[in-house]
Amino acid sequence: MKDVIRPVDPATLKSLTPSIRTFELKEECGINNLPNQIMAKAISDGFVFNILCVGETACGKSSLLDSLFNTRLDSTPSTHDIPRVFLRKNTYDLFEREIRLKLTVVETAGFGDQINKDDSFKVIGDFIDSQFQSHLDEELKIKRNLANYHDTRIHVCLYFISPTGHSLKALDLVTMKHLDSKVNIIPIIAKSDTISKPELQRFKQNILNELNTAGVKIYRFPTDDETLAEENLKANNLLPLAVVGSNETVKVGNQYVRARQYPWGVVQG
Ligand code: GTP
Ligand code: MG
User: Fold this and answer.
1) What are the Septin-type G domain coordinates in residue numbering (predicted)?
2) Residues 53, 5: Cα–Cα separation, whole Å
3) Domain boundaries in the chain?
4) Atom of ligand 1 nearest to the CA of 58
């Protein structure tokens, strides 16, 4: 015999659910409100950004990060006698107005200081792989908790090139080649205030030629979205980026700016 589904008598329903909860709409509900809802959620969740800084000791990694985020992040200067390259990892909660950024900074320590540099790049590659592995492990759990999981996979690697004015060192090429399939690499010429403008142009060209010859893939800002294409094309033409970092504030005109003061003038970071 087939089961017969009969409508429930309203009186019985009321006795079963004596207090029916009703919700009042606080704001307009519809497709046109979706962007606002997405924005509200993004603001309440905050953003996560993980940066890896690779570069020789004292090339200006910490100073540049301080300048980029306009703050003073914890940094311990490395000495030149560290026997093996290792990575320093710190996580910060930064706020700009009400927007929260969970920033993780990973810096190399002792990079380029050893006589035998054979495995300097390996430590960095292994670190990036281990972040992928921990994310995969979390995803594969039966009871995964990705909402609360702190994703430490690296979004970008800032690769600091020493401002020699000539070309890349063998260690730079080997390291970038090892990392380019694992992470987005943005090559950066550190302490660019130490090179003159014509020298800088030649230096940039030499670096690009060497990267091309070695088949190293660097990050290119996307140009397929037409709203950003023009800006991103300009940014791509500036690669490798020439940067200046500073933790000093200098008075220029009637305002204080983050800059480096020299006898001949001020370089703004
Ligand atoms: P470690 O973490 O010890 O490897 O050093 P780092 O790469 O973080 O360098 P840090 O930012 O500590 O800077 C080292 C020195 O370089 C400091 O004396 C800075 O003032 C100086 N410095 C940093 N950025 C620049 C720059 O753009 N130009 C010049 N001329 N000096 C800089
Ligand atoms: Mg540092």
Assistant:
1) 45-269
2) 66
3) 32-268
4) 5
pTM, to two decimals? 0.86
Q: How far, rounded to the nearest angstrom, does the alpha carbon of residue 201 sit from its chain's CA centroid?
A: 26
Say which residue the tokens 């702190």 belong to: 150
For the stretch 144-189, pLDDT in tens is 887 788 889 999 999 999 999 888 999 999 999 999 999 999 999 9
Q: Which CATH superfamily is domain 32-268 in?
A: P-loop containing nucleotide triphosphate hydrolases (3.40.50.300)
State if residue 112 touches ligand 1 by the CB under 6 angstroms criterion: no
Residue range 97-119, pLDDT digits in tens:
888 899 999 999 999 888 888 88
- CA–centroid distance, residue 110 to ligand 2 (Å): 10
Residues 6+ apart with CB under 8 A from 79: 57
